[in-house]
Amino acid sequence: MTRTRVASVDSCRICGADNWHTFLDLGNVPLANSFVTDESEPEETFPLVLMSCRVCRLASLTHVVHPKDLYDHYFYVSSPSRTMQDHMAGLARRFQRILGLGASSLVVEIGSNNGDQLAKFRPYGCSLLGIDPAQNITEQARARGIDTRTDFFTSAVATKVRAERGPADLILARHVIAHVDDVRDLVAGVRDLLAPDGIFAIEVPYLKELVSRRAFDTVYHEHLSYFLVGTLRRLLEDAGLRMIDVDEFDVHGGSILVTATLPSSRHRTNTERIEGKIRAEETAGLTSDETYDRFGAVVDRLRESLRTCLRELVEAGYVVAGYGASAKGVTWLTTSGIPRGWLAFCSDTTPEKQGTLLPGLGVRVISPEEAREQRPDVYVMLAWNYRDEILAKEADFLNSGGRFLIPIPEPHLVGAKESAALIGAAS
Ligand code: TYD
Question: pTM higher than 0.85 for the full model?
Fold first, then answer.
């Protein structure tokens, strides 16, 4: 087995300062997407510690795992869930409306995964180009006819793409810049590739939501950075781009969509909304060390109560299993010290994950069909970001007395009655 490479972070990847405040130590854990098939394979662990830059308030991991070791062969496949597919279709409609995309337009996606998002632009007839480093997943994209380069997006790659394909009318970076160490180079590449009136759209989990929802399980080695709107504005402006708007979406535990253009573009800046969000970040205390320290203490208590809650269920004789082998789930299970054996198995819809073992836990991942035959008493909802969709889908399990344990913001059990109330409230 080759050893995974890891480096510690010195200066801030956004503002260059070296003035950190460490506030969350989740210990040494395996990589959350390092599903294995062989139980005897030794698992490497790495520190999972979060710190805040006192200058620009980027939150960053203290250690960075070498990207080639994380992404060459990747298990994360863009979710086929209805929630996510609807969100991606909504984004395609939105940008078609703003930009009037058509046959002469070029849409580029950084971190394009299996091409699901780009496919949503097909009805508009534009040229599509995906760029993603994962060999196995870019093959899937190409197989469905989405032109995809297997590569990390850098300023050097941007220059080549511009020479080959011309400027881009829309560049999407959804849930990818948090994974990139040299993010300033990525944004410099975007600036060079954008058409004069082109739009760059970044979607990232929102640090403000992470803190308020206590979603500490979205902290794992792939996510190097956690952003506030103020931090992103600095990143964009330093690269010579103008942030024009920001929106919030309830995906991946609460995300922001930030758009930017070249300074001279025809697009108007929604100053009121951008400033409003930045003011709200300050009001929420997200520019002070104490807020982050309080969050760290809250998470320590939450990990403790997750362990207690699971132990009580197992000791009471219930058969407990995982639902959705998400990286989030692996993170809270491993960082909360859940021992092997508490989960009977983990159900997951992703074919690539089925037959493997949850990292650090040795729990077998099986298909939903197989899981249905095993009839557990309680499913631990590891993909809580799809809560309502999963509750609706599993109505039969709930109606026959099954329950879900939802971990965030506080562990709580949901049966048929509570599920009906939750789904009712959301619709
Ligand atoms: P996801 O939340 O997309 O991401 P992450 O790994 O970044 O935390 O992962 C959700 C996982 O849950 C994914 O492996 C697919 C799986 N899943 C199911 O098994 N059933 C479902 O109904 C849904 C919505 C997801």
Answer: yes
